[in-house]
Amino acid sequence: MKIKHYLSTFIVILSVTTGFSQEKKFKVHTVAFYNFENLFDTINDPDTYDEEYTPSEGWTLKNYKKKLDNLSRVLIELGTSDAQKNAPVIIGACEIENRRVLEDLTKHPTLLNKGYKVVHFDSPDKRGIDVGFLYQEKYFQPISYINVPLYVYENETASDKKDKKESEETDDKGAVDAKTKRIYTRDQLLVTGLLDGEEINIIVNHWPSRSGGEKRSSPYREAAGRLNRKIMDSIIKINPNAKIITMGDLNDGAYNKSVKEGIGAKLKKEELKKPADIFNPFEQMAKDGHASLFYRDSGDIFDQIMVSEQFISKDKNDYATFKYWKAGIYNKPFLIQKTGQYKGYPLRNQNGVPGFSDHFPVYIYLVQEVK
């Protein structure tokens, strides 16, 4: 399978002439999201279903360290070029077991000099996988952070009639409370902080999986989309000029109801009319045939980063504060399976050998004019 590449080259201080009457200089920051695909340590946690990732099951310290090697290689290169050396200043992550694995990653020799810090909460997911937030302290300083729980409940009628044909293989199989029927899934992580002195709000997501089939599980992701919208509306109510980024593995495409109706994401910048409106650059990318993951030879973009109206430039002089510039999917050749049944897919963990991830990371660029 041939994968389309959606990569561009950027530098920290850009000389931009296209679309401007005179040359302007800009600084650039990369904001990224990456599903780390089962970044587990080797310790058996009795409170979660992590037995698969223990030495007795073949997940050794050597494998764990190799996984960290692989992820750190991606993160140090993500969104960079020969001229733009800096790794992402903000990284949203999912499928991490705990805070420890994130701290181990930030201490990896490849990333150590970037000074990444961690924001993390344990979520109620029964496999023990959480979302997390990494940031370069030199550029971003958190002001506040909170985990917002998602409450979804099993549809008993639907669960008794699982569509085996439609059911998808997934590493994300939630547990259901026998009494309440609540499905335990990840919280949504909200971090507010200063990027080079400018306040922005970031929501990190990992929405309920398609276990049991897309149609049966869709209401859970629709609820996640509504919760995301509620968080954004609460921010806008406090500050109508707030800048918001929402990112994550949504387990839905940009065209699905959870994103189009739950969040209300827009395909085109011109559709943004009010501060609460959200632009999704990955919808057009999906229409153009790009993908961040594959299933049964079909590609889609479940990994998305969206920005609020305040990030969209109104005119050529509207770059005094950070604005959205471009988006991309990081799918360099070393991240792609070269042979076998899954040729062309992301190079994931398989047969006891640590890979990178079953998802490609995604990123956006924020730019600000340098006077």
What best-fitting shape do the alpha-carbon axes yield?
A: globular
Structural class: alpha+beta
Give the % helix. 10-25%
Radius of gyration: 20 Å
Unreliable runs, pLDDT <50, ≥5 residues? 1-13, 15-21, 156-165
Largest sheet: 7 strands, mixed
Question: Mean pLDDT, nearest integer?
Answer: 89
Please give a structural write-up.
This protein has 371 residues and is of the alpha+beta class. It contains 6 helices and 19 strands. Strands 1, 2, 3, 4, 5, 18 and 19 form a 7-stranded mixed sheet that branches. The protein has a 7-stranded mixed sheet with strand order 6-10-11-12-17-14-13. Helix 4 (214-238) packs parallel to helix 5. The longest helix is centred in the middle third of the chain and has 25 residues, at 214-238. The termini are far apart. The model is unreliable at 1-13, 15-21 and 156-165 (pLDDT under 50).
Attribute tags:
371 residues, alpha+beta, 7-stranded mixed β-sheet, 6 helices, 19 strands, globular, disordered N terminus
